[in-house]
Structure formats: C-alpha cells, structure tokens
Specification:
0% strand
Length: 264
C-alpha cells in the first residue's frame, strides 16, 4: 500500500466517525460562530459606552469570575458523570444499592467541590494583581454564586442525559451547550445591547438576571429583588426539568441494559 493510500485510510476512518456523530460536525462550525457572536456584541456595546468600564472598576473581572462559576458548575456535573462512563462503571453502579437520585446528588456535590477549588483561587488572585476583590459585594455575591451554580447544574444534568442517551460521541455538548448561552447571558454587556428579538430569549435564562443584578450592585444601586426573584424562579424550573429528564433517561437505559454499552 502506498503512502497516499495509507494517509487516505486514516482520513477515511475519521470521516466515518464524523458521519456517525453529529455533535462532532456541529462543533467544527460552532466555536468560530459563538466567539464571533459573543465578542461582536461586546465590542458593539463598548463602542458606544467607552467610559462604562472606567466608571465601574473591576466589573469585567467580576463578570469573568462569576461566569466561571456557572461554567465549572456545569462541568463539575457533566465530567463527574462522564468519568463513570469512561471507566465503564455505570453498570456496576446500577447493580449497587446506590439509587439514581443519590447518584445525581453526588454529582451535584462534586460540582460544588470542583467549582470552589477552581474559582476561589482566581478570586483571591485578583486582589494583589488588579486591586479588586469580588468579595466586596458581600451577601449579594453568595446569592449570585448559588444561582449560577444551579444554572450550571441544570445544564450539566441535561448534558449527562444526552451523553447517556447518545453515547460518548455527545460528550462535547458539555462545552457546546453552556457557551451557546454566553451571548444571551449578558456577561460583559447589558441585555439591552442584544437585538430586540433576542432579548425575550435572554430574559428566559437565569444568568441574564444574575449578571444584570451584578452590575446593579457594582454600580452602587443595591440588590434588585425583582432580578433575583426571576433568577431563582427560572433556576427552580430548569434544574427540576433537567433532573427529571436525567432520571427518566437513566431509568430507560437501565431497563434496556444500555448502561453496559457506553461507547460512541
């Protein structure tokens, strides 16, 4: 076999894998598009509000840290579940006394641990590097942290259900789904920056309420209880729905014996 044919055989192998895994194909176009959208809205806002950051010191640093709470809250759940799949341990867990809701609770607990370990040092490091302490927000910081954690849990449980249903070929959804929400969450800019037709969709997401509330606090306007109530209500709905979907998919997979088949 010639070198060209051997190279072609390698490429063909990966093309067959791509053909059987739509998340891989989606991911190729997804990241450039999502980055363009997120930073396009950010630059559009700053082009008309150039003094906004100077007036509110540290607001971008605070936004980055709080966004990472949601991001790592999601990964903490999804990776805890996928590690069970990678080690082919789901079958063993299914015949143990561990109940599905206990598995889910353990994943949420590990998410809290992973997020705290990952985000807390960054918050502390910002103090000597940038002379900014996110802890100056006081009690509202705890409220924002908890709401973003729960938002991350909802996404992580949804991703875990997808991976259990479609196999490890869908594992990239752990990153794809949460970054799809980034442009709509108003992390670095107010929701009013978005086109009018996108704003209702953004307000249907808990992070939009959290980041708008964060900016209110950092601008000295206090905690907006309306925004807080919206975030809490939406989080209760989404995490309840995601948990129900995860438990249902786990139940179906267990009945069909799919927990032993955790490949692509």
């Amino acid at each position: 076999m010639s070198a060209a044919r051997r190279i072609g055989a390698v490429m063909l192998r990966h093309l067959y894998v791509m053909r059987g895994s739509w998340p891989r194909v989606l991911e190729m176009a997804y990241w450039p598009a999502i980055n363009m959208t997120l930073w396009g809205f950010t630059s559009q806002f700053f082009s008309t509000h150039s003094s906004w950051v100077a007036q509110t010191g540290g607001i971008l640093i605070g936004a980055v840290i709080l966004w990472d709470v949601m991001f790592r809250g999601n990964l903490g759940v999804a990776l805890s579940f996928m590690e069970e799949m990678w080690s082919r341990n789901l079958g063993h867990l299914s015949v143990s006394p561990l109940r599905p809701h206990e598995l889910m609770a353990g994943m949420l607990g590990m998410s809290l641990v992973r997020t705290t370990i990952g985000v807390l040092p960054a918050g502390l490091l910002a103090i000597p590097l940038y002379h900014y302490s996110i802890f100056d927000m006081g009690l509202p910081l705890l409220v924002f942290w908890l709401n973003l954690m729960v938002s991350g849990w909802a996404i992580g449980l949804g991703v875990s259900a997808l991976v259990l249903r479609f196999g490890l070929g869908a594992e990239s959804m752990a990153w794809v789904m949460i970054f799809a929400l980034a442009p709509l969450s108003g992390i670095y800019y107010p929701i009013s920056t978005l086109p009018a037709w996108l704003q209702p969709l953004a307000w249907a997401l808990p992070p939009a309420h959290v980041f708008e509330g964060m900016r209110q606090v950092m601008q000295g306007n206090g905690l907006d209880w309306g925004l807080l109530g919206g975030a809490v209500g939406l989080n209760v709905f989404y995490v309840g729905a995601a948990g129900s979907v995860f438990l249902y998919v786990h139940h179906v997979a267990r009945r069909r014996g799919l927990l032993l088949n955790v490949g692509e």
